[in-house]
Amino acid sequence: MEISKDAVVKAIGRPEAEDLSLINQLARRELEPEEVYTFAVRLCDNDIDRDFERFDDMALDQLAELFLGVSGVFDHQWSARGQTARIYRTEVVTDGSVVTADGRPYKFLKGWAYMMRTAENADLIAEIDGGIKREVSVGCAVEKVICSICGEELEDCPHEKGQEYDGQVCAGVLTGVTDAYEWSFVAVPAQRKAGVIKSARKLEDEARLGRRYLKSLRREMARLAGIAEPEAGHALLERVADKLDEAELLGLIKLYRGKTDKLLTGRPQLSYGEEGQEPEIADGAYLI
Length: 288
Hints:
Blueprint: E1 9-13, H1 17-24, E2 36-45, E3 53-55, H2 57-66, E4 71-74, E5 85-99, E6 105-116, H3 122-129, E7 136-147, E8 164-165, E9 168-169, E10 172-185, H4 202-228, H5 234-242, H6 246-265
Parallel strand pairs: 3-10, 4-10
Antiparallel strand pairs: 1-2, 2-6, 4-5, 5-6, 7-10, 8-9
Helix pairs in contact: 4-5, 4-6
């Protein structure tokens, strides 16, 4: 099988009989070869991207099934007017001549797409043929992001994406694909060879930020509690912190910060003439 490494989008042109049969399974009427323009796209791969994330091999297989029949748009703008092409065939390809950044066999998801040869699409077809339109990105949803260092869910483990641990760079492994929204022509994809947006939904981005915020609160609470009550043990404190919500964490951070301030500054345990005064406690949490 031909594998293009120089371009994400490869023009094919007129479909062969086998491809036209697959296309007509998606069309509402039988299309003729001269009505249709086809091209191949490298949708996504298993290499570490600019966000220090990667799909696992099972996720590529799942995406191959989910992207059948999915529309292509521009810059992830979900509108009927922006729909230009549709995926009619997919395949996970292994390139034995390439390895990923962390030394694994390189695999990518290849898709074949078609569009109608209309006056409105003439400019886009010319840009694909001329190599102007070539970068693509996909929008999908996954169940988990696993830490490549320890194998735990990234939001619950102590490692950070992009940081190096004993010579190994931490990456988030995307696993358990639940949906494929769309694929899109873009200027700069997240993946170096294909580009991928793991979720095109703003709410999912906000949820990710919320998980990171809670993770930082739990770390800070366990750290301060460990200073104030070293006999408790760090592992126990981490397990306790994992069960608390934001309000509980902020309250305990405030409490333990007050205790650690007294310990670290060597304040006297007894105060004279100040029984009615409340100790000053710094408010808020340490955020990363």
